[in-house]
Amino acid sequence: MRRRAFILALGGAAASLPFVAHAQATNGVRKVGVLLSGVESDPDSQVRITAFRRGFAELGWKEGENVHIEYRWSAGNSDLIRKYAEEVVALKPDVIVANSTPVIAMLKSMTNSIPVVIALATDPVGLGHVESLSRPGGNFTGFTFIDPALIGKWIGLLREITPNVARAGLLFDPSTTPFYPRWIREIEAAHQSGTTELVAMPVHSNDEMAVAIAALAQRPDSCLMIGPDPFNVVRIKQIAQLAAQNRLPAISVYRPFADEGGLMSYGPDTADIFRRSAGYVDRILKGANPADLPVQQPDKFEFVVNLKAAKALGLTVPPMLLATADEVIE
Known about the structure:
By secondary structure, the protein is α/β, with parallel strands linked by helices. The chain has helices spanning 43-58, 78-90, 101-110, 148-161, 180-189, 206-216, 230-233, 236-245, 255-259, 270-285, 307-312, 319-322, and strands spanning 6-7, 30-36, 67-73, 95-98, 116-121, 140-144, 167-172, 197-202, 222-226, 250-252, 264-268, 300-306, 327-329.
């Protein structure tokens, strides 16, 4: 396996002072709530939370000494998201760390005073979670995950391996990721997908997902894209298996997709985003106002190619493409 760092330059963030009043704690111990959409035992979840803890510790925060952290894992379940959001807000923490659109939306409906640092936000402006990326304007700030341009990147990578691709299906659950249909319209209007037809694949269950993937595969010039979605992330192994069974070239934003037998993954380094999120929590605990902390974009991306999956699909990965991969699974 080979690894190579992709680091893209990005501007820093500014902060102002007026949030000190909210950030006072009793006995000198601060309280942080962490509400995440994943499953705690999932390896990818552990990588992310470990990165957050390490980044937080490097800034001088020690769990059980000067900070108490309450963790909740909702496993992409809407009932658990509501239950745990209510619990975390009721704890009245100094800051909440959250990820995924459903979790962020739930917290948005419950508090306009507790600062919330978003780790992995998708379309926060379009969904009304912040006023703008440069000046969020409320109690939410953090880090974005993807934007429509990444879909164009996925199509480009798939074309390099399968030049005859004419259809690209995007798998998502509209109840958890309502922005995808709008993104597809925007991409098509800007002709960013070139000659490739974008196909929306809204699903709500495992059965619907299996049917949709099989239907996409009926045409041999099709490929599959798996973007950020709580629905997708807890089914990433199943999606990789369905793509292989239906002989569909596929790419996902999630690194574990390639580990589980998918053809490729390309997306932001989520561990790096969680590490950087710890920096925003630190700044807010020290008095920064989230309204003035810009929502930042990813500056580190990871590209993984699974050669075993390519061989099973009868595909040849160009050497030039392999040379750009952070990791090649053989």
